[in-house]
Amino acid sequence: MSHEINQFQDFDNYNVNISKFLTPFQQKVLLKNLQASLQPEYRRRIEIMLLADQGKSPSKICQILGCSYHMARYWSGVAKAGLAHQWQEQKIGRPKSVNDQYIERLKELVTHSPHEYGYPFQNWTAQWLSKHLANEMGIKITERHISRLLKQMGLSTKQRNNILQQETVDIQDSDIVICDLQLSYEHNSLEDLLNFVNTHH
Residue 120 above 80 pLDDT? Predict the structure, then answer.
């Protein structure tokens, strides 16, 4: 097995004639990039794609490179899909996950009107909460996950609408009434209007 590891880690014996998925151009680019000084994670991605192109299964690639099965399967799939050029586009490591700061910000957003944040609509949706938080905090999560988080906190995107309705009911039940004052004169008469202004001035 150590012979196989050495053989594939330096890729000196890579046979460009045995190709399952990659075009000659893709092979050339990947092999050239292996010669550059890369971060180990990027190097591993390229090695996985080249091994997959030679017909190695994800299990065999794991044995050869000592990587996780998930990683071997994922990057083998990328090579099979003809997307080998994307080896550098996906960031290294796990995506950022939801933390306490994210949860607190989500609570704050859902209890305030989207108007306060410059949006033209009155009520949040899980989709817009997800987009807003992705832009603001750099953490992308699905609408379903947003809805699940809100439910766990006992909140909802409909809650803001319920708060507005309750405020309207509270105002209607109060003893103070605010309305437009009506003037008791005819609008046709300029003289009546001037008299009214002079007597109330």
Answer: yes
Q: Are 130 and 141 in contact (CB under 8 A)?
A: yes
C-beta separation of 56 from 15 below 8 A: no
Q: What is the pLDDT of residues 100-113, one digit of tens each?
A: 888 888 998 999 99
Say how many C-beta atoms besides its own lie within 10 A of residue 72's C-beta.
Answer: 25
Same domain, 126 and 63: no
Could you tell me the two tokens for 162?
A: 């319920």
pTM over the 0.70 mark: no
Take residue 47 and report the two structure tokens written for it. 């090695």
Query: Which residues lie below 8 Å from residue 30, measured CB to CB, with a gap of 6+?
Result: 22, 46, 49, 50, 84, 87
81 and 98 fall within a common domain = no
Write the pLDDT tens digit of every residue in 140-198. Answer: 888 888 898 898 889 888 755 555 555 555 555 556 656 555 555 445 566 666 776 67
- Residues 132 and 195 placed together within one structural domain of the fold: yes
Count up the domains in the chain and report the number.
2
The crossing angle, in degrees rounded to 10, of helices 126-137 and 100-110 is 130
CB burial readout 91-116, b (16+ within 10 A) else e: eeeeeeeeeeebeebbeebbeeebee
Residue position matching structure tokens 């075009």: 23
Domain around 140? 94-201
The first and second tokens of residue 101, run together, are: 């700061």
> Which of 88, 116, 133 is the last residue in one of the domains?
88
Select from 88, 122, 151 the last residue of a domain.
Answer: 88
